[in-house]
Fold this sequence. Notes:
Elements: E1 2-6, H1 11-21, E2 31-34, H2 40-50, E3 56-60, H3 64-77, E4 81-83, H4 86-96, H5 106-126, E5 141-145, H6 151-159, E6 165-169, E7 188-192, H7 195-208, H8 220-237, E8 241-243, H9 249-265
Parallel strand pairs: 1-2, 1-3, 3-4, 5-6, 5-7, 7-8
Helix pairs in contact: 2-3, 5-6, 6-9, 7-8
Amino acid sequence: MIYVVSDALGETAEFVVRAAASQFFETEMDIIRVPYVSDRKHIRELVEEASQFKSIFAYTLVVDELRNEMLSQAKQFGIPTIDILGPMLDIMAKVTGEVPMMKAGLLRKMDEEYFRKVEAVEFAVKYDDGKDPRGILRADIVLVGVSRTSKTPVCMYLAHKRIKAANIPLVPEVGPPEELYRLPPGKVVGLTISPNLLNEIRLERLKALGLTADADYANMKRILMELEYAEEIMKKIGCPVIDVTNRAVEETASKVLEIYYRGERHGR
């Protein structure tokens, strides 16, 4: 009997034990995973049960009190033990000079955070630039503004903070989707910019696309009309507005996060 004991889920230890057991063809080994062991009494009960068989304890217990109890009890009953995580922690601590946190379940927490980040990035791509208005209602935050106000890069930055962000371009000829007005004002953030800077950015964009500078896209009269239209929409929604003029993407995203978490604290 091989008892795999962990103060978390125990998947790591079980995988190692099964890999080792696969090398033995003539001996049948029963592997019992015991997850979420959180007190010494549980360990004593396990060791007492295991003492009735030819047993081994393989464990990933990061809490010192539980590791010491496992060693003490197993030694009392003459049951061999293997600390799967301990030696690696010790050598990493020695090489890095850092003291490990010794908290259970951190790997699973890291995995969950990673997958939330991936999900948020996929969300930002799927609902970028108003591609599908239905995403607005599923978003944590929605950015609105005229073209070239950093909506997409800010959304991607927020995604890496595990925030699902969508963005809607505000164009005078195309009314904003109805879903936008169904959101609480604190869930929408408007982005605006100075007309002169927007003109420069759009001229550079036209140049990169190989188009002439006299296109309506970079016309100052057109820019002023778009900004005025966007301002009207933002006032109608009642959303906070951030001026992105001369702001880095990180700065803008930081402001958006501040608004988002303030809304979370107040329950929107």
